[in-house]
Specification:
By secondary structure, the chain is mainly alpha-helical. It has one domain: Cobalamin adenosyltransferase-like (Hypothetical Protein Ta1238, Chain: A, Up-down Bundle), CATH 1.20.1200.10. Helix content is 62%, strand content 3%. It contains 6 helices and 2 strands. A two-stranded antiparallel ribbon has the order 1-2. Helix 1 runs antiparallel to helix 2, helix 1 runs antiparallel to helix 5 and helix 4 packs parallel to helix 6. The longest helix is centred in the C-terminal third of the chain and has 25 residues.
Length: 192
Amino acid sequence: MPLPNIATRRGDSGKTALWSGERVSKTDPRIRMTGEIDLALAVLGLGHRYLRAGDDFARQLSTDFLHLQRRFTYLMGEVSTSEEGKEKFIAQKEAISEADVEFIQGVYERLRKHLDDIGYKFDFSSWKVSGETGEAAAQFHVIRATFRRVELQLWDLHEQGFTIREPLLKCLNRFSDVLFYTSVLLEEPAGA
């Protein structure tokens, strides 16, 4: 099968299409948001090498994160859909739902239990900055901060009057917590 042509040149005028077909400025807040989500997913992709190099628990996290990366592509699609097209998007696509929130909550609970089981002691009074925790943990702090920024920008879109359904916001909030604990999991011992 030949490689598809993705160079339509339709964007040369500074406009691009929403999922629902309407053409809008490339600076439209929904298009900017899609770019931010795209960046967050790309940065998350960098983190897999640290998880795959770890134990069975870390490798399972990588598998869970791959699943979420695929699911979050639907977040991009829904955000880049007109208000009128959202119902059609949700009906035709596997839109983010409460099941995704529950999946992320399950990952969070497993991760938290694992940290308890291995005896990790967290103390806010001895807070470490990411440069003190090793490369893998620092990378996951960058990933977490990138997803947190996406969450805040989604709230901004919501406050501007765009429809952002509750499961989308919940997923990003919960996933940022998962990413925080992932960075804790990957911390190197002091002096390593």
